[in-house]
Amino acid sequence: MADVLTAEAVRDELGGLAGWSGDPAGITRTAELASFPDAIAVVDRVAVTAEELDHHPDIDIRWRTLTFRCVTHSAGGVTRRDLELARRIDEILGSVR
């Protein structure tokens, strides 16, 4: 099982992830896309990445606004896997803007 990161480690890592916030209980990012189809296209790409990593975010879809929440439920908090997924989500979002 992956180790849950300390509050300090999460804070340090979030410093390198634009738009993400949170603590050892979970990290989140909200992004607004140009349209609903654009938002769904991002969700589709994140789904493929999540399957590749075998690690899945919680995703809230509100018209063209997406909120991603990453936490390793089996570990009870944020692990390195969540940070890697957050980085990959950032790459996807960066490619559609």
From TrEMBL:
Q: GO molecular function: any one?
A: 4-alpha-hydroxytetrahydrobiopterin dehydratase activity
Instruction: Establish whether keyword Lyase is in the entry.
Output: yes
Which InterPro entries does this entry report, sorted A to Z? PCD_sf (IPR036428), Pterin_deHydtase (IPR001533)
What catalytic activity is recorded?
Answer: (4aS,6R)-4a-hydroxy-L-erythro-5,6,7,8-tetrahydrobiopterin = (6R)-L-erythro-6,7-dihydrobiopterin + H2O
Group of enzyme by EC: lyase
Any one of the GO BP annotations: tetrahydrobiopterin biosynthetic process
- What family is reported? Belongs to the pterin-4-alpha-carbinolamine dehydratase family.
Q: Which PANTHER family match?
A: PTERIN-4-ALPHA-CARBINOLAMINE DEHYDRATASE
The protein's name in its UniProt record: Putative pterin-4-alpha-carbinolamine dehydratase
Species, as recorded:
Micromonospora deserti
